[in-house]
Amino acid sequence: MVETELKELLDKIRNRKCEEQVVEVKAAHKGCPEKLYDTLSSFSNQDSGGTLVFGLDEKQNFAKVGVYDPQDLQKRVMEYGEQMTPIVRPIFTVYAEEEKVFVSAEIPPVDVTERPCFKTAKGRLQGSYIRVGDADKPMTEYEVYSYEAFRKKYRDDIREAVGASIETLDPTKLEDYLLRKKKNRPHLETVPTEQLYELTGILKSGKVTLSAVMLFGYYPQAYFPQLSVIATCVPSTEMGILNETGQRFTDSRRIEGTLPEMLEGSLAFVRTNMRTATAIDPKTGMRRDTPQYPMDAVREAVLNALVHRDYSIHTEGMPIQLTMYADRLEVSNPGGLYGRLTVDQLGHVQPDTRNPVMVTAMEVLEQTENRYSGIPRIRHAMAELSLPEPVFSDRRGTFTVTLYNRREIVQQEQEERVVEEKQQNVVYDPRGLLAFCQEPKTRKEIIAYLNISSEQYALRKYLDPLVQCGAIQLTIPEKPKSRKQKYVTAARKD
C-alpha cells in the first residue's frame, strides 16, 4: 500500500462509518492499543489477510485523531507480531495530513498448512481467532481441529467404527463392491480377501472403518446415530413461520441407511415435495412438465454433502440438513471447504479430498462419474431451466448449497407489474434520493421515502441503478444482503 491508497482507505472508512471483513480501525492517539493479538490472528487466518488502520477513532464517529508516534507504533506492532505463532510480519505505510499522522499495517495471510495463527502465550486452542464481519471471534475447538486435520492429513473416513465387525456389513454389498473393484484390475484377483479389505479401506489394522459401515453396513446409524439426513419442507421462506393452516412443516423426515440409500431417500423426498409446472406447447400440442429444481443439481448437492462432509468425532452428532423453502432448496453439511479451496474456486480448481475412500467407493459403485464434475453440473442444470445461479457458502464449519426456484422470480415480476401500473404517471428525480442519502439510510427508510409498497420494485427501479453507477455506495459492500446494510451518497462531504 502506498500513501495515496492509505488516504483513499481513510476516506472510505470515514464515508461508510464502519469497519469491514478486511479492515480494523484503532485510534492510537494516546498510545499503542493494548489488544492487537486477536486481530493479528484473525487476519492471518483468512485467505485475504487484512489491514489495521491507526489514527481514526471509532468512538468519535471515525474522527481523524492521528497516532501518538508513528515510529514507536510500528515498533510495538512488530513486537506483537513476534509473539504470534507463526510470527506475523506486518507491512507498514505512513501518511501525514494536516499535522496528523496515520499508519496502516497490512497483515498477510498465513498459508493454510501453518494455520491457525495464534498468540503463543495463550496456546492454539485459546489464542486462535477468526474474522466474522467486522469482529474477531475465538475459534471453536472444531475450527482449530479442521486446520490440524488438513495439515496432519487425518483420515477420519477410515477411523475405527467402534462396535462394528465384518459380520455387521452386508456380504452382498461387499461382494458386489469387490467385483467392481477387481474389474479392469486383474492383479487384485490374487490378493487375499482380508488384505484387499485393508487396501480398500474397509479395514484398518483389522478393525472395521467408518467408511465400511457407511457404505456397506446393514444399519450404519446403529453405530453413528446422527450420520443421517434431516429433510424438512417449510411452507414459507423462513424457518418457524406458520402457514395459513398453522403448519410449521409440511413434511419432515430423518433419512437413514448407507450413503447410496440416503442419497436415494433424499431425492425421493425432494420429488415428493417439489412442485411441477405443466404447460401445453402451442406448436406441438405436447405436454411439457417443468420441475421447480433440476434433479441432476439436487442429486449432486446431496451427493457432495454425503461424501465431502466432515466425519470426525467433532461433527458426528451433526446430521446433514436438506431444507425445502417456498423459494429455495438448501443442502448444508458439517465441515466447510477442505484445504486450500475457496468458494470462488469451486468447479474451477481441483480440490483436496477430505474422504478419499468414500469418494473412490462411490465412483466404483457408479454413484458418481467424475470426482470434480459436481459443481459444474449443478451450475449447468440450473442454467438449462433458466433458474438463478446456485449459491455456495462456507461459514464457520458449515458448507451450504442453495438452489432458488422460479417462485421468487414470478412473484417479483407480478409485484412489479402491479406497482408499475400504479406508478406509471409518477416520475422520481434521482437527485432527491441522492440528497436523502447524504447520511447513510436503511432499505426501509429509502422505501418509505419513495412511498412505494413493493420493496423489490423500489430497490430494482430506483436504488440499484444509482448503486451500479457508483452514485450511491453500500456501507457493507462485502455483505450486500446484510440486515445492517445502509446506503450513502458517494459524493457526500465530511
Short description:
By secondary structure, the chain is an alpha+beta fold.
Keywords:
494 residues; 4-stranded mixed sheet; Heat Shock Protein 90; 6-stranded mixed sheet; Methyltransferase, Cobalt-precorrin-4 Transmethylase, Domain 2; 4 domains; single chain; alpha+beta
Could you explain the architecture of this structure?
This protein is α+β, with helices and mostly antiparallel strands. It folds into four domains: 3-139, Schlafen, AAA domain (Methyltransferase, Cobalt-precorrin-4 Transmethylase, Domain 2), CATH 3.30.950.30; 156-222, no CATH class; 229-408, Heat Shock Protein 90 (2-Layer Sandwich), CATH 3.30.565; 425-489. Helix content is 35%, strand content 19%. The chain has a six-stranded mixed sheet. Strands 1-2-7-6 form a four-stranded mixed sheet, sandwiched between helices. A two-stranded antiparallel ribbon has the order 3-4. The protein is flat and about 80 Å long. 32% of the residues are buried.
How is this fold's topology laid out?
Blueprint: H1 3-16, E1 23-26, H2 37-44, E2 50-54, E3 56-57, E4 63-64, H3 70-82, E5 84-85, E6 91-97, E7 100-107, E8 118-119, H4 123-127, E9 129-132, E10 135-138, H5 141-151, H6 171-182, H7 193-199, E11 203-204, E12 207-208, H8 210-216, E13 229-233, E14 251-255, H9 259-273, E15 276-280, E16 287-291, H10 295-308, E17 320-324, E18 328-334, H11 356-364, H12 374-384, E19 391-395, E20 398-404, H13 406-423, H14 430-436, H15 443-450, H16 455-468, E21 472-474, E22 487-489
Parallel strand pairs: 1-2, 13-17
Antiparallel strand pairs: 2-7, 3-4, 5-8, 6-7, 9-10, 11-12, 13-14, 15-16, 17-18, 18-20, 19-20, 21-22
Helix pairs in contact: 9-10, 10-12, 15-16
